[in-house]
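Input (structure):
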């Protein structure tokens, strides 16, 4: 695969990189206050779920296109860029129309080669950063296959997100980290930036720090972490979201490795 080094992507000015923001875009006020706080703390790339792949029906499935103009306004207001999940060519087209140009493919889409290929086709000819989350099941080949499909559409600013794997009876994690899978990906494709998603691995706030520290110790390139102005009132994933200030404190507690001389 032909991959551009993360330091040459032109959108991250620090390393390891951080993407932070709410699980879901909920209201103009929730988004403005969350992004405003994050921007004040120095975060430049904001996540926000617009189309939400919920496992079961009758839960909040995202606002859809109605949220896109809010995002567009806030990108200008706070000089930040948004990253959103896309699960279809329609999502890609809608996002681009509203000036959103960083995408990720969710764990439930990565499992489906038809879906991934359709998204890849809709990205052909564009130079946009795209991250591919691991599939929900611990299948490295499926993850690599999705990365290859996106790369073969010409996307060179391509990254991988480790968000853990579905399990039946893990007593600790929401999604088991099974670290050997992302590490094997890193061994085989050292040029693909590898980002950790401690929020969806942990499922609860108190695990985010130890999971992030583990990722840092294992040489991950960065993080995507959920942050909400009022986590307890969040419409999705409330137990794992951190207030922007708490996220900032957590990052300060991470012990960076001293490079060997
Ligand atoms: C998300 O990032 O909000 C999300 C739904 O993640 P995943 O695809 O990892 O479940
Ligand atoms: Mn979430």
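Output (sequence):
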């Amino acid at each position: 695969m032909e991959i551009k080094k993360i330091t040459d992507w032109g959108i991250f000015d620090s390393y390891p990189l951080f993407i932070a923001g709410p699980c879901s875009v909920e209201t103009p006020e929730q988004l403005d206050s969350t992004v405003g706080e994050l921007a004040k703390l120095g975060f430049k790339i904001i996540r926000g779920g617009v189309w939400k792949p919920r496992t079961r029906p009758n839960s909040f499935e995202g606002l859809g296109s109605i949220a896109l103009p809010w995002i567009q306004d806030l990108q200008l207001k706070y000089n930040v860029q948004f990253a959103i999940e896309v699960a279809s060519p329609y999502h890609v087209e809608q996002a681009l129309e509203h000036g959103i140009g960083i995408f990720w493919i969710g764990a439930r889409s990565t499992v489906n080669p038809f879906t991934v290929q359709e998204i890849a086709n809709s990205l052909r000819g564009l130079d946009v950063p795209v991250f591919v989350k691991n599939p929900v099941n611990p299948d490295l080949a499926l993850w690599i296959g999705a990365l290859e499909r996106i790369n073969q559409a010409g996307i060179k600013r391509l990254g991988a997100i480790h968000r853990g794997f579905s399990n039946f009876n893990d007593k600790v994690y929401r999604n088991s980290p099974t670290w050997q899978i992302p590490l094997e990906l890193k061994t085989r494709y050292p040029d693909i930036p590898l980002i950790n998603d401690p929020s969806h691995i942990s499922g609860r706030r108190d695990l985010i720090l130890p999971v992030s520290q583990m990722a840092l110790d294992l040489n991950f390139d960065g993080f995507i972490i959920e942050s909400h102005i009022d986590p307890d009132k969040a419409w999705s994933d409330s137990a794992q979201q951190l207030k922007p200030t708490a996220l900032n404190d957590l990052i300060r507690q991470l012990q960076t490795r001293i490079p060997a001389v």
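Notes: The radius of gyration is 17 Å. The longest helix spans residues 28-40.
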